Amino acid sequence: MPLKNKEKEAAEPKNAPEAPLRALYKKTFSFEPTSFEPLKADGSARRLFRLGDRTRSVIGVFGPDKLENRAFLEFSRHFRAEKLPVPEIYAADENQGIYLEEDLGGTTLFEYLLSERKGSEIPPQVTAVYKKVLEYLPRFQAQAGRGLDLKFCYPRASFDRQSIMWDLNYFKYYFLKLAKIPFNEQKLEDDFVRFTDFLLEAPSEGFLYRDFQSRNIMLRGGEPWFIDYQGGRKGAPQYDLASLLYDAKADLPPELRSELRAHYLSASGLDKRTFMRHYHAFVYVRIMQAMGAYGLRGFYEGKTHFLNSVPYAVKNIEWLLRNSELEVKVPELMACFKRIAASSYLRQFGKTTLGLTVRITSFSFKNGLPLDDKGHGGGFVFDCRALPNPGRYEQYMQLTGRDKPVIDFLQKEPEVAKFLENVFSITDMSVENYLSRNFTSLMVNFGCTGGRHRSVYCAEALAARVKQKYGARVELAHREIGGVAK
Asked: Which among 55, 70, 102 is the end of a domain?
């Protein structure tokens, strides 16, 4: 039974966009839309709809923030004039906060990645699309950015001190506090100032897209199209590259991130040394901005699906702690990152499986223990010096624990078999526990006198067992004889 007029009016919010969007469609195309379908909401307050008739389909947008709408509309017109693949704007009624734009289909780069990837492996066709995307990025940043009227940027004209501090405090109040990560507030604020000073040293004359990530890139006919740049402003190019390569749920492997970074640098013509000096700092600030958003939407607003990205962000932080070194000293901020990386709680959201890497190293005690100063400190050191030593025999001196004669020698010794049986029993407990808690790194070290025979043999044996029994990723290094296997 249809609602009476007053009842119908009460059932619809005053800003219900369907009627004005339908009216704008008819005014623009001279036909009533025969379909009107709401689309899945993103993290913003905008509402999107697909509407059309027998001859066309368009996207209708209602945005309550008129300044944000204006930024998107002006940027879109500018980018179209620069021949960049962004949606055409068909019509807009800025007073009502509505506009009609080109329908780019329903496949994002993120959805394409998920449909094509096989576990952690990214197939060549997906890598090729990412490279196409990165060939467009310098055009947005440099070519299109040169003629852009910055008065339309919202909420700031540049990624300046104020913008950066907003992001850092967003991370502090909506993530650190709500996730119950302890910190010294004054020391963290001091670090924020130093960190911001360092970021502001980077050249920043181009356009910063701001949210250059896989859900904001559409694929149509295999070609990338770009959306959601309304938060753009003047800024450093490192930020946009970090946004794409450290996009949490995309979970790109480190090797692919390096390959794509090199491709971007080649396409942009930027000096690698200058770019890399600030790059990882921008990776951190982008991750902090994203984690602030996860905390706001997930912890504070109760939209728990946003928290499903947290374990991937933790994994990225853990990788950065181990593989990057900032040129600015921010000890309290780094302590916060280490507490995040060590948190079992933050790894448990959703049905995320991050994958465990077991890092196995052979070494000589004469040259000191392997260090894990950038990791979380978990793991073992096993002393192989009590085992029979093939290095005492002339025929084995120039060989290593990877050579068949040495392997045959050690396999015949019952002490070696007993030692490895105990090693396997202990490490199995940790591997299984780490897998259940979604930890991503376990370090196991084998030492002997020279680091060439017994330690190498035991490291190889454990690596083979972990791969075969658990399917975990293994990084195997023999410090004294060289050589890394994965």
From this structure: 102
- Residue-level pLDDT at 40: 85
- From CA 213, how far away is CA 250, in angstroms rounded? 9
Task: Print the domain residue range for 84.
Answer: 16-102
Quick one: 307 and 246 in the same domain? yes
Distance CA 182, CA 175 (A): 11
Q: Give how far the C-alpha of residue 484 lies from the chain's centroid of Cα atoms, to the nearest Å.
A: 26
Residue with tokens 């002339």: 394
6 assigned to some structural domain: no
Residue 62 lies in a domain: yes
Segment 212-254, tens digit of pLDDT: 999 999 999 999 999 999 999 999 999 999 999 999 999 999 9
Distance CA 23, CA 19 (A): 6
Six-digit token string for 56: 């066309």
Three-state secondary structure string covering 153-168: CCCCCECCHHHHHHHH
Residues 281 and 364 in one domain: no
What would the pLDDT profile of 403-445 be if each residue is shown by its tens digit?
999 999 999 999 999 999 999 999 999 999 999 888 888 999 9
What is the pLDDT at residue 218? 98
CA 470 to CA 354: how far, in whole Å? 14
Give a three-class secondary structure readout of 76-101: HHHHHHCCCCCCCEEEEECCCCEEEE
| 141 and 269, same domain (yes or no) | yes
Provide mean pLDDT across the span 459-471.
96
Q: In what order do the strands lie in the sheet with 35-38?
A: 35-38, 47-52, 57-62, 98-102, 89-93
- C-alpha 67, offset from chain centre: 29
> Could you give the C-alpha distances from 136 to 7, 55, 86, 224, 376, in angstroms and in order?
51, 31, 11, 9, 38
Judge if 85 and 57 occupy the same domain: yes
Looking up tokens 């890092």, which residue turns up? 359
Q: Tell which residue, 334, 324, 363, has the closest CA to residue 444.
A: 363
One domain, residues 44 and 159: no
Q: What are 446's strand-pairing partners? A: 362, 382
Confidence class for position 374, pLDDT limits 50, 70, 90: low
**Whether residues 334 and 391 fall in one domain:** no
The radius of gyration of the chain's CA atoms, rounded to the nearest angstrom, is 27
Question: Residues 94, 116: one domain?
Answer: no
H-assigned helices in 345-403: none
User: Does residue 1 sit within a domain?
Assistant: no
Q: For residue 352, tell me if it sits in a domain.
A: no
Q: Among 86, 102, 118, where does a domain finish?
A: 102
DSSP 14: T
Please count the structural domains in the chain. 3
